[in-house]
Amino acid sequence: MSEGKQEQIEFELYSYWRSSASWRIRAALKFKGINHKITPINILKDEQRSNEYLSKNPSGFLPTLVHNGNILIQSPALLEYLEEIKPEPALLPADALGRARVRGLAAIIYCDTHPVQNLTVLKKVGALRGKEGVTDTEFARWVIWTGFTAYEKALSVGGTVGKYSYGDTLTIADLCLFAQGYNAERFGVDLTDFPLIRKLLETLSQEDCIKSTHPSTQIDAVQ
Amino acid sequence: MSEGKQEQIEFELYSYWRSSASWRIRAALKFKGINHKITPINILKDEQRSNEYLSKNPSGFLPTLVHNGNILIQSPALLEYLEEIKPEPALLPADALGRARVRGLAAIIYCDTHPVQNLTVLKKVGALRGKEGVTDTEFARWVIWTGFTAYEKALSVGGTVGKYSYGDTLTIADLCLFAQGYNAERFGVDLTDFPLIRKLLETLSQEDCIKSTHPSTQIDAVQ
To answer: The GST N-terminal domain covers which part of the protein (chains A, B) (predicted)?
Structure first.
């Protein structure tokens, strides 16, 4: 828990202001009080497809985290890494069963929802439907609606929802949910059928680690 | 490491023979020597959409693992859970950096590839292209090709490939890769451009935990 030498830890996060996967990590870094530098990558200018960026992150996706020269990719792996190297304050429960439940909720977002509605996929679906270069909003809405339907049911079936998705402590599931909620709003997804999610999004919107890392606060934000 | 009381541990895995996410968990259970019962769910008969199954797994996806009455979902969460409750033999490296690298590789498959080409998504893309009820093979091939392109580069960029995806020890990344390779074959994806992956798939095909849990060996397999 010592904060004494934290300024010596060197973290660089490659991020895009509107990338919800980047936001998860920005929020986790803030929550854990880990000093870091943010390097913006502009996906509208295809900077994530530059040879330089691809040499770090071969998927051409955001975020990428560089820690003391070690290049790490994929936000679920980054969340686990941050939890391991700085366990407190925790973003996962202390018991294996609780961790499995939280990871299960998070995976509804970071496996089944977000990757299916990322920009590359939406453009591909648009192209397959004869609209080259257009992101397919109808498909995106369906993906997010389907993911939120599962998340909402998992909250009630699991009976684990409290102030947060799992009890009364913030976890990685909440960070994934909130960032996905931002995408839901962008794509105009109707959240009427998701009362538990709506309540969580309202609560989470007040969290400092989320507010202070909001896309609109980012150096590369376009207003 | 004691095996003495293992027969008392009660695991039930809801699985479908051709589900690559189920296969990951079947292989992990086998690798770790965890006795378990398999309950088949026939997704061609939409059994995963029954109220009974949805009450366990609200996503309507496979697999679901029940451990001593505790219902757990999402294969990445299950892999972590099995690693925590039975750390040996290990499916993750001992150091945080190594674990992050392995999870990063695995997530290229379990986030960016497999969920984007699951049956539900392929049917949705088919329907959006005017072919209701048809799985979109063209989209599936693109998704797997894109995912394998990233995985292949990550293996060489990371420089971590050995006998397996990360050094000379089998990890969760290999289990995810191999099961995805099975899907690649089913969808007719050309693997010519992926020499490292092809070599890994050849090696992995000889692993007992993979061979003995192959879809064709399953009780619900249709030959």
So the answer is: 9-90
